[in-house]
Structure formats: structure tokens, C-alpha cells
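hey so u asked for the seq, here:
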Amino acid sequence: MKSKTKTINLYILRHGQSKLNELHIIQGQKEFAKGTNGLTEKGKKQIKSAAETIKKLDISRILSSDLERCRETCEIVNKKIKVPIEFVKDLREQYCG
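ran it, C-alpha cells below
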């Protein structure tokens, strides 16, 4: 009997420009005061543009870091594709101290 294999496609999307990216601050895992970690208007436009491409893909679920800039990115994309989102602390970027 042949076993059936299922192909899984993994798509990786970086968050849009964050407020701290704009100031050339390396943020790492650190979350500053609420509202300062999110996306700039430019970052939101970047993700809305990416979402137009992403909606053409067969995406069944989003896995993301739980950091604010990543959450905001996922929420923008998910307005187009409407799939479950799972925020995973282990997906945070490297700890910078």
C-alpha cells in the first residue's frame, strides 16, 4: 500500500515597516510602550500590497510571532484571507539583549 504524502507550502512574510524601524532602532524582542511597536503608515501600505498577492495563494493558517508589529501585520493580511491565526512566542526574532 502506498502512503499518501501531502505537500505543505510555507510562505514567509516579514512585518511591514514599524515605528521603530523608521527611527533606525533595533527592536529585537523588546516591546516598548503600547502603541510605539506597531506599523507606520508606510508599513501598513506595504502589507496591504503584499496581502493582494497573498490572497491568491492557498493559505489555510497563519503562524506568527506574538510581537505587536507582527500581530498588526497578520491582522491586515487576514482581512483578505480570513484564516485562523496562531501567535507563537517561539517565533519571535533573536533576542538582542
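DSSP finds three helices and two strands in the chain. Residues 18 and 85 are 20 Å apart (CA to CA).
lmk if thats what u needed
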